[in-house]
From TrEMBL:
Membrane topology: Multi-pass membrane protein
Membrane spanning stretches: 37-56
Species per Swiss-Prot/TrEMBL record: Juglans regia (English walnut)
Domain of life: Eukaryota
Protein name, per record: UDP-glucuronate 4-epimerase
PANTHER family the record matches: EPIMERASE-RELATED
Catalytic activity: UDP-alpha-D-glucuronate = UDP-alpha-D-galacturonate
Main location (coarse class): Golgi
GO CC annotation, single: Golgi cisterna membrane
Alphabetic keyword roster: Isomerase, Membrane, NAD, Transmembrane, Transmembrane helix
EC number: 5.1.3.6
Record-linked SUPFAM superfamilies: NAD(P)-binding Rossmann-fold domains
Length: 438
């Protein structure tokens, strides 16, 4: 009880220290000692907290060290009888001549559209996606919900997880792989270079390793990019043109993918088709792309930056509508020949192809903005800016005669028509329709 006395005395100490003259009783000494210990403990925790915060929040000192994508620390739940049943049922074909396709990046823009189209015509489709947060994951979840309604199950996992990939091939003998999982976007490569190496190079190799060992080996169709043409100035871009001058790390990783494809075709007899997509746009698109965030910013009354090249040079893109791209993807799958290897050994030469999938009519970015202004009925606050030195090229223009000949590819949607469909979807999705769409 006697110890309570000084405590009550302490109660009188004002909250502002130093304003109260304290007597030097032994109690006070003890209390001082206690309070310094408490302070020490408190500050140690603060310090420890700051260190932890530093390690978990800051980009690694070398962008290529530690976790390269800064997003793949997640662990995914997969496996078990119920999971296997879902995998099998999603990949089961409903038509006699159909294929069973593993679609990587199925919750992505192109992945969602291709998966839906395949499923609708009776093919078996299993999706794979790591649902990373490069852009709003809720959009990916909404696409997933859409796919679930058409009977496509998306396995959550990373293409770098070879144990998972092997398991998938153990459960289903996929005839085809539509490989669309990638780190997309040209400009983001300066911010997070490791994620491009992680997904577009390491991830591709991890997938091809599993495909090469699968028995039977699947035929693979995968997404390359128009950006491989880099500084090539010969127009329109033909598959025979040089692609050894990439202007961005993104382009370099896609170009590396094309060389890696050659190697796996050459050594293991994998049938491989690379599709060079030209600025694909449309409903359920990617929010990191200009047409998408221009729409958002115009509606918000925010200014948008329109790039122009030196001497007021026009920056233009061969914008290609998603439905045309889907037709190209399906035709590539349909015309792909079987891989020739088995048990990791090549038995004969296999198919190796690369196609441009573009629209063949480049449109200046400023015209794209004018179309959006008309569709949205809002005037854009335009800010003309010099094309930044961050990987963008001045123009793209596809020569599609090879795809026309071999795939019967014939794009039929012009930018005005395609953007109209995009805007309709956008307004519906983001103004109340979002929940319904999801
Ligand atoms: O065709 C391709 O290979 C590539 O197409 C797009 O890349 P990009 O054409 O750069 O598409 P956006 O980022 O949507 O840019 C479209 C155009 O708008 C311009 N832009 C972009 C952003 C901006 O703020 N202002 C602006 O004028 C760009 O310079 C470009 O000319 C995709 O983002 C890539 O993933 C894809 O591989």
């Amino acid at each position: 009880m006697s110890q309570l006395k000084p405590m009550s005395h302490l109660d009188n100490i004002p909250s502002t220290p130093g304003k109260f003259k304290m007597d030097k009783s032994p109690y006070i000494h003890r209390l001082r000692w206690h309070s310094s210990l408490a302070k020490l403990t408190f500050w140690s925790f603060v310090f420890l907290g700051l260190i932890l915060l530093f390690f978990f929040r800051s980009p690694s000192s070398s962008p290529l060290s530690s976790d390269p994508s800064r997003r793949s620390l997640r662990t995914y739940n997969w496996g078990g009888p119920t999971w296997e049943k879902r995998v099998r049922s999603s990949a089961r074909l409903r038509s006699r001549n159909g294929m069973s396709v593993l679609v990587t990046g199925a919750a992505g823009f192109v992945g969602t559209h291709v998966s839906t189209a395949l499923k609708r015509r009776g093919d078996g489709v299993l999706g794979l996606d790591n649902f990373n947060d490069y852009y709003d994951p809720s959009l990916k979840r909404a696409r997933q919900a859409l796919l679930e309604r058409t009977g496509v199950f998306i396995v959550e996992g990373d293409i770098n997880d070879s144990t998972l990939l092997s398991k998938l091939f153990e459960v289903v003998a996929f005839t085809h792989v539509m490989h669309l999982a990638a780190q997309a976007g040209v400009r983001y490569a300066m911010e997070n270079p490791g994620s491009y190496v992680h997904s577009n190079i390491a991830g591709l190799v991890s997938l091809l390793e599993v495909c090469k060992s699968a028995n039977p080996q699947p035929a693979i169709v995968w997404a390359s990019s128009s950006s491989v043409y880099g500084l090539n100035s010969k127009v329109p871009f033909s598959e025979r043109d040089r692609t050894d001058q990439p202007a961005s790390l993104y382009a370099a990783t896609k170009k590396a993918g094309e060389e890696i494809a050659h190697t796996y075709n050459h050594i293991y007899g994998l049938s491989l088709t690379g599709l060079r997509f030209f600025t694909v746009y449309g409903p359920w698109g990617r929010p990191d792309m200009a047409y998408f965030f221009f729409t958002k910013d115009i509606l918000k009354g925010k200014s948008i930056s329109i790039f122009e090249a030196a001497n007021h040079g026009t920056v233009a893109r061969d914008f290609t509508y998603i439905d045309d791209i889907v037709k190209g993807c399906l035709a590539a799958l349909d015309t792909s020949e079987k891989s020739t290897g088995s048990g990791g050994k090549k038995r004969g030469p296999a198919q190796l192809r690369v196609f441009n999938l573009g629209n063949t009519s480049p449109v200046p970015v400023s015209d794209l903005v004018s179309i959006l202004e008309r569709l949205l009925k809002v005037k854009a606050k335009r800010r003309i800016m010099k094309l930044p030195r961050n990987g963008d090229v001045q123009f793209t223009h596809a020569n599609i005669s090879l795809a026309e000949r071999e795939l019967g590819y014939k794009p039929s949607t012009d930018l005005q028509t395609g953007l109209k469909k995009f805007v309709r979807w956008y307004l519906n999705y983001y103004s109340g329709g979002k929940k319904a769409a999801g």
